[in-house]
Amino acid sequence: MRHPHPPQPPSPERSAELRRRFAEEARSERPDLATLCLLVGAEADGTLDEAGLDAAQVELDRLAGQLPFRPGTPRAWAVALRDLLGERYGFHGVAADYQRLESSLLHEVLRRRRGLPILLSVVWLEVARRAGAPVYGVALPGHFVVGLGTESGPESGSLEERVLVDPFDGGRVLSGQDAEVLVAGATGAELRASMEPAAPLDVVSRVLNNIRAWAARRPEQSAVGLWAIDLALLLPAHAARLRYERARLLVQRGEFAAGAGELEAYAEVVGAVDQAVAEEVRGEARAARAMLN
């Protein structure tokens, strides 16, 4: 099966500007999920210019304007969103979407009305939020869905106070049993009683994780993996191990000196905690430098 070619990246100047804006938004008091996801899209797709970024925000506004005015209960909101986004506009996902980088890019998901569960959930979240719905993302193990109603778990009330919907399945309203089946099917694990709402930066981090995983399965797309790591490193909270991952990716790309330098810098950091691991990493750095000869 031939996979479609991913979009071409922007110029280095445009990329630098996008990263500056991404870092600024990520560190703002209330990071905007749609803006962050669209900046990720612009880093992936050089054709997404300022007019395209604005058009995507306008499309989210337009969709929100077509929802009934404050339909009422969480379930009524869920049904209204399903009827509009899932049924009228046909937003949903299929298994083949996991093979496409575009499935992780918000502007492409708005255009194609197809995408990964987390990106379709971003559409639901942003449309519902603009319309005034009590909405939040829920990262079930192995599958991202959307919650409507109170964010608090059963310890402060009953699960009836909120409704879960699955945008990947066109916004289907999930019963408790449906959610358990989804989690078991994805991970083999059991559904925990309380699922914490996912903050915007958590959602963006997961989107970037998905892009890195997509690129890792395609060594010829290492440039995509590299910019996804670079954006993840701009998030206020990120795993130190990302720097190790970046260094190894540079070596894989044949950038031996740069990769070795980053491996040595990471070894210094990790050495304060685990000397054995630090020595292993220094060994990798030496091997990378040896490739230069």
Biggest β-sheet strands, sense, barrel: 5 strands, antiparallel
Overall radius of gyration: 21 Å
Number of strands: 5
Q: Can you tell me the overall shape?
A: elongated
Helix content: 55-70%
| Amino- and carboxy-terminal Cα gap | 39 Å
With strands numbered from the N-terminus, the spatial order across the biggest sheet is: 4-3-2-1-5
Helix/strand/pairing class, anyone? alpha+beta
Q: List the helices and strands in order.
A: HHHHHHEEEEHEHHHHH
Q: What is the averaged pLDDT score?
A: 89
Strand content: 5-15%
Give the uncertain stretches in residue-range form.
153-160
Helix tally equals: 12
Q: What this model shows, in words?
A:
With 293 residues, this protein is of the alpha+beta class. Helices cover 56% and strands 8% of the residues. Strands 4-3-2-1-5 form a 5-stranded antiparallel β-sheet, with helices on both faces. The radius of gyration is 21 Å and the shape is elongated. The relative contact order is 0.10.
